[in-house]
Amino acid sequence: MADEKATIIDAQADVEGKLKGKDAVVYGRFRGEIALSGRLVLGEGARVEAVVSADAVEVAGELKGDLRGRSVTLTEKARVLGTLDARVLVVREGAWLSGSVSAGEGASKGTSTAPVPPPPPPYGDRGDKAGA
Fold it and tell me: How many whole angstroms separate alpha carbon 93 and alpha carbon 89?
């Protein structure tokens, strides 16, 4: 992102709408939808309420909404409330995350998710002595 131009929403900005493009950095307030093909950085002062989709996302501010990315990093001061879907998820000590999380190989591959396996049978049905 250093060599290419990125969209920057500064700390005094209050934006509502759709943001599309390659890379972006948000330090201010944003409400709406963010769809990027590259990297999104939400700085420490950022307050975002949005549906977010980007290849790589780093959150150091506040995010309320749905977040989907191949790689997502929540830094020490991150505050995320909503749905998170990432192939690679890094949550640093001090970060706060509340909501639905889907991470790993099956995540970020479209809208369908892998079926949930059935729960194991009760102890008495497995033939072991634990439930007897």
Answer: 13
User: Cβ contacts of residue 126 below 8 Å, gap of 6+?
Assistant: 120
What's the pTM? Answer: 0.76
Cross-strand bridge partners of residue 48: 30, 63
Angstrom CA distances, 45 to 14, 30, 84, 104, 125, stand at: 12, 11, 20, 29, 54
Bridge partners, 67 (sequence order): 52, 84
At 33-86, the pLDDT tens digits run: 999 999 999 999 999 999 999 999 999 999 999 999 999 999 999 999 999 999
Nearest CA among 43, 103, 20 for reference residue 67 = 103
**β-sheet bridge partners, residue 91:** 74
Dihedral-angle region of residue 99 (phi above 0 means left; psi in -120 to 50 means alpha; beta otherwise) = left
Residue with tokens 């998170």: 84
pLDDT tens readout for residues 58-69: 999 999 999 999
